[in-house]
Design a protein that fits this description.
Blueprint (H helix, E strand, L loop, with lengths): L8 H11 L12 E3 L7 E4 L3 E5 L3 H17 L10 E8 L2 E7 L4 E2 L7 H16 L2 H6 L10 H17 L13 H6 L8 E3 L8 E3 L5 E4 L6 E3 L2 H11 L1 H10 L4 H23 L7 H11 L5 H10 L7
Antiparallel strand pairs: 1-2, 2-3, 3-5, 4-5, 6-8, 7-10, 8-9
Helix pairs in contact: 3-8, 5-9, 7-8, 7-9, 7-10, 8-9, 9-10, 9-11
Length: 314
């Protein structure tokens, strides 16, 4: 099997010059620099564009599908979705897209305001309105909901590893009982378009706390909406995630399910980080765990329990 080439600064510079021929020719084109969290495949191009290079044929397929998916999603959501100004192949069979930059910072840099939570609610509402059949016709895969019971057991084992490192008290996981995990199973017929990566680096936030855009739609699936609620819990904290999901019309079951997906995931990932089984930095993993385990207001807990889930605990 032929090894895929690794993009270098020279590779990117030559490609950018061919795409933006009218930009500062006397200086050799706009400044390029790698996006820190994007590895060698994502590059800033000047101040207005970002270049993404697929590293293999599977990633190329997702990249091409993303371009069509963004056009499908854009009319339904109240925040910006990146627009491609150029696309093609940077190496045989390997796709690229040059996108306009959505102005703003990440959720790691800016807190989301109350108005920003309404933006997130509009995002969740819009994703629910995207026609599932049209998305599947583009090749968006349908993914079965995860077993919360299996995740609970895995998180329990990871929590013991965190106890030994004085990182987490496993007793906190006892709030999610086996019966509650079964009760919070995803309901049949609830599948919607799920971004599936609503982490802090993919949310573009203004200095005022408004949500201006959502990046990277390559992992989008048809599936469990609680996964996006879980992503928001990691990005902006559990209270804000629940408020946004509630504003979007989601009831107790998906809200509670999303919180427990996030909480179990963060315990498992931090344990993996301590053991060197992931490249994600430990400070980020600790921040995500803290956000996922933030308590929500007592009156909101009561509302959620009274609505649908008497046995579920937060």
């Amino acid at each position: 099997m032929t090894q895929a080439p690794t993009p270098t600064a020279d590779t990117v510079r030559r490609l950018v010059r061919s795409l933006l021929k009218d930009s500062t020719p006397d200086r050799g084109g706009p400044e390029i620099r790698p996006v820190a969290e994007g590895g060698p495949s994502t590059w800033w191009v000047g101040t207005r564009h970002v270049l993404r290079l697929a590293g293999d044929r599977e990633a190329s397929t997702r990249s091409r599908r993303e371009l069509r998916l963004r056009d499908l999603v854009r009319p339904h959501v109240p925040v910006a979705v990146p627009t491609s100004v150029a696309q093609g192949e940077w190496a045989p069979g390997l796709a690229y897209t040059l996108d306009t930059k959505v102005p703003g910072g990440s959720a790691e840099e800016h807190d989301v305001s109350a108005v920003g939570e309404a933006d997130l609610a509009g995002l969740l509402t819009g994703l629910r309105e995207v026609p599932v059949r049209q998305a599947e016709a583009l090749g968006v895969p349908r993914v079965a909901p995860r077993s919360l019971e299996a995740l609970r057991r895995e998180a329990g084992r990871a929590a013991e590893r965190l106890r030994a490192a004085d990182e987490f008290d496993p007793a906190r996981l006892q709030q999610l009982t086996s019966p509650a995990a079964v009760q919070l199973a995803a309901q049949p017929g609830s599948a919607v378009i799920v971004h599936h990566a609503l982490t802090g680096e993919h949310l573009v936030i203004s200095a005022e706390g408004r949500v201006r855009g959502v990046l990277d739609w390559t992992g989008t699936v048809v599936g469990d909406p609680a996964e996006d609620i879980a992503g928001l819990a990691l990005a902006v904290g559990s209270p804000a995630a629940v408020r946004a999901a509630t504003l979007a019309g989601y009831g107790a079951r998906p809200c509670l399910r999303g919180l427990w997906l996030a909480r179990c995931d963060t315990v498992i990932r931090l344990a993996a980080g301590l053991d060197g089984r992931t490249t994600e930095p430990l400070p980020l993993l600790r921040t995500r765990l803290r956000r996922a385990w933030e308590a929500i207001l007592l009156e909101r807990v009561t509302e959620l329990r009274d609505e649908e889930t008497d046995d579920a605990e937060l």
